[in-house]
Amino acid sequence: MKKQPLVSILIPMYNSSEFLEETLQCAVNQTYKNIEIIVQDDCSTDNSVEIAQKIGNIDSRVNVFSNSMNLGMCKNWNSLFEKAKGDYILKLDADDLIKPDIISILIEKGIESNADIVSAAYEFLFKDSSHKQIPIHNNLNEGVVHNLLSTIIFNNPFHLVFSILRKEFIDSIKLNDKYFMQTEVGDAEFLIRSALNKAKLYFVPISLGYYRIHDNNSSNTPLKQTSSFYFDVLPLYHTTLKKHPHFNYTKKINIDTWVYIKQILKRTAPFNSKLLFQMIKLRF
Asked: Residue 220: its pLDDT value, please?
């Protein structure tokens, strides 16, 4: 019988005590057993480390590391990814939830399709425990995603938390010897880089996890991620994307610019002249 691939579940955390135990239980309760679970704390000031260590004392697959100084989100991710020994990696944020069979399902699909990334549908989980499906997932069929770059940049339906990444592939596409760029949208940049490096992404249209919506989500800060995308990520790929034969670069920026102007007029986003100028500048 062929040995099952090792899967590394990587959990970065910072002041995650409110949801951490539930998230860790999702990891240890996977039906797929050949896993390692690596938790890395980025100088939390709450009792996150104690919670993780308590579970690690019960389950030897859970290994807990603590940074000596605060690294920030993507530097912590990079440090964590360097510790992974698995053939595949799943990055599980410390406030999100995955279903018990997510790794079993994604590994099976990954091996069958020889995919570099296997991504599942997921749902939003709200404070009142209600959850909501994400409509864009209904527009994707199961299988290898074609026109991956356009799919990611226009209406990204994929999330690293609900995906497995083939280690051999992500090792081959490092940026300046790092898995992630130091930016608020490190996961989005990673997916764009993957697409530009001809990643084979297989989509599973079954909801296999929950992205938790709460007050401390980084995406809740107005324009934080949009600014990071336009100042950190897009300039890096500006020339490549403009010349890409299967991607309408100008259309993407026009849509974003118009959406932002409408948000300003409706007063749902603050006016940022530097961001607006950057959007216009990158059209050319």
From this structure: 60
| Structural domain includes residue 1 | no
- Domain of 44: which CATH number? 3.90.550.10
Q: Indicate the residue among 199, 216, 233 that finishes a domain.
A: 216
**For each successive 10 residues of the chain (284 residues), what is the average pLDDT?**
88 96 97 98 97 96 97 97 98 97 98 98 90 87 94 93 98 97 95 97 97 75 86 94 85 93 93 95 89
**Taking a C-beta distance cutoff of 8 angstroms, is the pair 117, 202 a contact?**
yes
Give the pLDDT confidence score for residue 219 in this predicted structure: 59
What is residue 217's predicted lDDT score, i.e. its pLDDT? Answer: 64
Per the structure, the complete domain to which residue 224 belongs is given by 219-281
Of 160, 181, 216, the position where a domain reaches its end is: 216
Residues 164 and 255 in one domain: no
User: How many separate domains does the chain show?
Assistant: 2
pTM of the model: 0.94
Same domain, 108 and 157: yes
Q: How far is CA 12 from CA 82, 92, 123, in A?
A: 13, 7, 21
